[in-house]
Amino acid sequence: MIPFSKSDRLQRLPRYLFAELERKRHEAEAQGREVLDLSIGDPDLPTPPFILDALAEHARDPRNHRYPTSAGLLQARRAIAAWFEQRFGVALDPAREIAILIGTKEGIGHFPLAALNPGDEALIPDPGYPVYVAGTTFAGATPVRVPIREAQGFLPRLADLDRLVRPRTRLVFVNYPNNPTGATAPRSFYEEIAAWAVRRNVLVVSDAAYSELYYAEAPASLLSVPAARDRAIEFHSFSKTFNMTGWRIGFAAGAPALVEALVQLKANVDSGAPQAIQLAAAAGLASLDVHGPALRGVYRERRDLALDTLRRLGCPIQTPGGAFYLWGRVPEGESSMDFVSRVFEQTGILLTPGTGFGEEGEGWFRVALTSSVETLRRALGKLEALAPWKAPHASASPVSR
Ligand SMILES: Cc1ncc(COP(=O)(O)O)c(C=O)c1O
Questions:
Q1: Closest atom of ligand 1 to CA, residue 240
Q2: Over the stretch 5-60, which tens digit does the pLDDT of each residue have?
Q3: Probe ligand 1: pick from 131, 148, 239, max atoms within 8 Å of CB?
């Protein structure tokens, strides 16, 4: 036997749900069954040509063949600052308030290592993107889950934050447009959470990875609230905005001390994002005025199609304000996992059980709108034949909500 066992920090993690779903999928595919995957939020559309052209050009420049800097190219950070000011009305110092990331996940996963000590606590939305718990756990700190519920538009209640905050609470994560619920936050929410953070003397980490995917009003930035400027960091992604999940590129913006700490950490574990990708992504922001509405139109059509069908089937489901997910109720009396397994076994449609995002996700499932209208139609047709919200089902195990 080799002298190896996984580190305690790895063993403390909840199982990464998407790996589990991948396994189910491969198993079914190996058996030759058709899988209609509506589980993972990975855009089916290609990266737009204006990004690819810039990428090809910058990739040929030998200056971009060497190690990048950890904070990212100043030229790219300047382009980001210009966009940020135009989009959010927030002026950022590109040298001190912006750092480029190898995807937002990298920054969110690393930030707790730069900001938390063992024994510290972080407030994390439940349901929520699993990386907040993972990053906090890796830092030896304790994730404390804050329920976000339908009745409050999936915004955390300040009363819950007050109940859960303790002397070792150092930061609170917020994420709008929200994964998995599709909820959006008005600017007044950012004012409230910033004022709360000042009162409780904690930091705010805002995950704005879906800021450009919205169906009504364009979401605000937490950084537009003056009280947040010296105690907040906001994470932005190019992944969903430009269908570039595979290129791994995002950025962090916010208080200089927080950005600097993240950059220092990154300098010790990675060497920054490839420069050609930084330059192509940052230049792409200038095309967002044209690209953004077209992209949102694509998701709107998919959203409306899926919402109509699910409602017709009797699924209780709200209209999301942003991101590319639908968050619906599983049939009464059935657990999230049982429902998702039943649907997969009987139709080949892969959904995400709400419990993959935390205990509060029990009773819910998520649909990712990252498949074509044709694929969605096929999947919804199969779901319609199953009619899970209407027919009583034998295998359900009761759950309390
Ligand atoms: C809420 C949220 N934040 C961050 C990310 C990561 O984005 P990126 O591809 O930039 O790492 C995702 C990806 O699914 C997400 O859902």
A1: 9
A2: 999 999 999 876 667 777 888 889 999 999 999 998 999 999 999 999 999 999 99
A3: 239
**CA 295, CA 75: separation in Å to the nearest integer?**
26
Spatial neighbors of 253 by CB under 8 A, at least 6 apart, are 80, 84, 92, 97, 98, 223, 233, 234, 236, 259
Residue type, 396: A
SS3 assignment, position 378: helix
Global confidence as pTM: 0.95
**Whether 275 contacts 58, CB under 8 Å:** yes
Report helix angle 74-88 to 275-284, nearest 10: 20
Structure tokens of 372?
């074509």
Q: What are the pLDDT digits (tens) for 216-239? A: 999 999 999 999 999 999 999 999
Q: What is the DSSP string of 26-42?
A: HHHHHTT---EE-SS--
Element (H, E) at 234: strand 232-237
Can you read off the two tokens belonging to residue 365? 């499932």
- Among protein residues, the one with the nearest Cα to ligand 1's atom 14 is 41
| Element (DSSP H or E) covering residue 76 | helix 74-88
